[in-house]
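Subject: Protein record for review, amino acid sequence with backbone structure tokens
Why sent: The fold of this protein is of interest and is recorded here as tokens.
Enclosed: The protein record, placed directly beneath this head.
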Amino acid sequence: MSNMHRIHWFDQRIREGHYPSSKDIALQFEISRRQAQRDIEYLAVSLRAPLLYIAKHRGYCYEDKTYVLPHLYMTEEEKEVLKFLARKYGQFSSDQSSVQRVAHLLGRFTGEEETEAFGRLPFFEAQPRLIEISGQLAFAISQRKIVHIRYRDEAGEMRLDICPVQLLSRYNADYVAAYGADGSRKRLYRLDGIGDLHVTARIFEDRDEQNAAVIERDFPAIKPFTARIKLNHELDDDTWFGYAARPVVELLYEIDFYDVESFMQQLMRTAWQQLEAPKWLRQKLQDRCEQVLNCLNGEGER
């Protein structure tokens, strides 16, 4: 159930003069007191409700009785986009709390509040094709439907029937963990390698989940690239727009990144002083800038 349904109930109880509390939400909707308290915090912080706790009544009222809840309407398409981003932020591996807050917030908007979330805040592009595939696979997982896919990887193109069990994101790439319908072991399929996808009417049987470490071992062992960049000012923490950053000397940082295209986009839209290394990234960025200048001068490819 969406937290907005609980918040509307809580709001109505306040307007009826009942001074509701987190205990009341927990009892009404059979959730934990901690989860109920998060609803109240969301109402106060994100929805800017003028909540006032009245110790005498052990519950809340509105300090300003003219307050009204904002109208929050979301189309199914918008929900799919947020679900996609909530999963990517929730499974981004890091060690701070900013991504956790973003993933939790996105999950609350879509009614899927339980997110596994970690650290730094990266930039993710919501590609329509991947969102569509992700939504179809999420449906297949929930209904235990066998999915027929046309899949391409380094071994070539193939057609497969798979039993999808989990959507995952690592290193700015998206995967589905699935068994083969022929009984083969669980493996990972990159979503951007799926050409065609059809959710069949066939149901697959539940299987005992393998240890999560098995899936972790299946992920490609990707080491980050490292750029040496002289910035305009010192960083307040160990990240630069979500990328892990380590100081070298004054204003010079080593910055880790996995996806070259995303990192180049960040460099194009952010102010900095000098890109010292690597040379291949300097060249790629220079080529990109020359392409843009050529287009501006009417000299682009025709």
About this structure: The first strand starts at residue 51 and ends at 54. Residues 3-62 form a domain with the Arc Repressor Mutant, subunit A fold (CATH 1.10.10).
